[in-house]
Specification:
Shape of chain B: globular
Number of helices of chain A: 0
Helix content of chain B: under 10%
Largest sheet of chain B: 6 strands, mixed
Oligomer: heterodimer
Structural class of chain B: mainly beta
Shape of chain A: globular
Strand content of chain A: over 45%
Largest sheet of chain A: 7 strands, mixed
Number of helices of chain B: 0
Number of strands of chain B: 12
Order of helices and strands of chain B: EEEEEEEEEEEE
Structural class of chain A: mainly beta
Largest interface: A-B, 30 and 25 residues
Chain lengths: 114, 120
């Protein structure tokens, strides 16, 4: 167990629907990052939150949004889903430079849009 | 802009062979971090190593070793005496030096990954 918890592990939904992916960071970590892994795009950075504030955005579609709550867990909302949104979505957390591992990844949520 | 290139898409070896996975990076930052992750068939990302831009010492951990050369912007990974359990996708990644007021890492930029298959 890496200490980063992602739920659900698997999600199957239809096109046009909306889903919410949840991430609980490792205890004490203030930063949460979301990544999307698809066959054609590889591992792509989506968004970074630090202590509740958005810090950086990557290739995140307008149909996608995220937030980090006061208890530091984060949610990634995907709406108007398309077949191409099928991917493995990872969350990672960090506690700053002093932790040897840097980023700790969750086990991912595998989203299948049918 | 940061970029990581893993030119080897797939590598196939026979057990006990040594194998080197190449990684070349581009960044304008003077402070940055380099990582290697392993993604086995089960899908999770397993941390292997972190190296900062000021530490060019090579590192060895069991059968794994890493060669960091700033002069060629490379951070190569060698597995000695490969085993079937080493079969996985390996990612090299680069992080900005700091974000969020210097208290957090910036985003990770990943290479495309190298699929390593070790045959018995």
């Amino acid at each position: 167990d890496s200490g980063v918890t992602q739920t659900p592990k698997h999600l199957i939904t239809a096109t046009g629907q909306r889903v919410t992916l949840r991430c609980s960071p490792r205890s004490g970590d203030l930063s949460v990052y979301w990544y999307q892994q698809s066959l054609d795009q590889g591992l792509q950075f989506l968004i970074h939150y630090y202590n509740g504030e958005e810090r950086a955005k990557g290739n995140i579609l307008e149909r996608f949004s995220a937030q980090q709550f006061p208890d530091l867990h984060s949610e990634l909302n995907l709406s108007s889903l398309e077949l191409g949104d099928s991917a493995l979505y990872f969350c990672a957390s960090t506690g700053g430079f002093y932790r040897a591992h840097g980023y700790t990844f969750g086990s991912g949520t595998r989203l299948t849009v049918v | 802009a940061q970029k990581v290139t893993q030119a080897q898409t797939e590598i196939s070896v026979v057990e006990k062979e040594d194998v080197t996975l190449d990684c070349v990076y581009e960044t304008r930052d003077t402070t940055y971090y380099l990582f290697w992750y392993k993604q086995p068939p089960s899908g999770e990302l397993v941390f292997l190593i972190r190296r900062n831009s000021f530490d060019e010492q090579n590192e060895i951990s069991g059968r794994y070793s890493w060669n960091f050369q700033k002069s060629t912007s490379s951070f190569n990974f060698t597995i000695t005496a490969s085993q079937v359990v080493d079969s996985a996708v390996y990612f090299c990644a680069l992080s900005e030096g700091s974000n969020a007021g210097g208290t957090s890492y910036g985003k990770l930029t990943f290479g495309q990954g190298t699929i390593l298959t070790v045959h018995p």
